[in-house]
Amino acid sequence: MAGLKYAVHAYAWTPSWSNDTLDLIDRAKALGFDMIEIPLMEIDLVDASKIRRRLDAVGIDVITSTVLAMDCDLTADDEKTRAAGVDYLKRCVQATADMGAGVLGGVLYSAIGRKLDSFPSTKHWEWAAQGLKEVARYARGAGVTLGLEAINRYETFLVNTCDQAVRLVEMVDEPNVGIHLDSYHMNIEENDFYQPTTKALPHLVFYHISESHRGTPGEGLVRWEDIFRALAEGGYSGPVGLESYTEVSDAMRPATCIWRKLASSSDQLITDGLRYFKELEKRCFS
Ligand SMILES: [Mn+2]
């Protein structure tokens, strides 16, 4: 049995990745994870060669993710902003390759938090696909696959569901562009968990396994058995990642809107979560 590869998002402990947070690589390993997920939002602070050395020394894999900001939005009306989005994503791809990661996930198609006054137009979809195609071709040369994350309606207007992620992947039409699901968002947008997971499988490159309130997995509304059953039936053995922000500083609260304590500590939440998922995997994959 190949088994799922468990990642933990560095956001469990820090809102910002830099050389001051390299110790988190050791911490993820010590807590039993196969990978650490490193955020690239502050790309200027990301020192890929230092990260790679630390990963090699510790013996753990890495996956990266990011979101687009308003000034580098692939779906912006203004051409310069769209071009800035392509440039930014190429930098993220390069950093991903340089640290030895194979997948860059996240909200790679539009600025997070952007609201529209009317229905998205064909233009928005085409701009996203066009920009991603250029980034994907660049990423292919670097050996990197892009994962387009479907997230909830309050955070994007473009890709809220697995169906919409499939639509965008098909529009981009490059072999190294896939889907990144997140159960926290699916709990808001999908009819169930089994069907979209199954539908995503041919394109699936990453899965944020987050509880409905981003607290301890198993204590919320996500139907984990349905997700793991679908993954098992599809023979998925790629990365799955715990994404929670329990301990994260007040700096991140305005973005995450988590104004209560969801567990005694991040270590507790992710350790309990990892144990829960490994038991579930044993049951569903056998
Ligand atoms: Mn996510």
Please describe what this structure looks like:
By secondary structure, the chain is of the alpha/beta class. 42% of the residues lie in helices and 16% in strands. The protein has ten helices and eight strands. The protein has helices spanning 23-30, 48-58, 79-98, 122-142, 162-172, 183-189, 194-200, 224-233, 253-256, 266-285; strands at 5-9, 35-39, 61-68, 103-111, 145-149, 177-182, 204-208, 239-242. It has an eight-stranded parallel β-barrel with strand order 1-2-3-4-5-6-7-8, surrounded by six helices. Helix 3 (79-98) packs parallel to helix 4 and helix 8 packs across helix 10 (266-285). The longest helix is centred in the middle third of the chain and has 21 residues, at 122-142. 45% of the residues are buried. The structure holds manganese (II) ion.
**Element string (H = helix, E = strand):** EHEHEHEHEHEHHEHEHH
Largest sheet: 8 strands, parallel, barrel
Tell me, rounded to a whole number, the average pLDDT. 96
Determine the strand fraction and express it as a percent band. Answer: 15-25%
How large is the radius of gyration?
18 Å
Q: Could you say which overall geometry the principal axes of the C-alpha atoms support?
A: globular
Strand order of the largest sheet: 1-2-3-4-5-6-7-8
Percent helix among the residues? 40-55%
State the low-pLDDT regions, or none.
none
- Helix/strand/pairing category: alpha/beta
Q: Tally the beta strands.
A: 8
Described by its quaternary structure, the protein is single chain
* Cα separation of the termini: 9 Å
Give the number of helices: 10
Bound molecules: manganese (II) ion
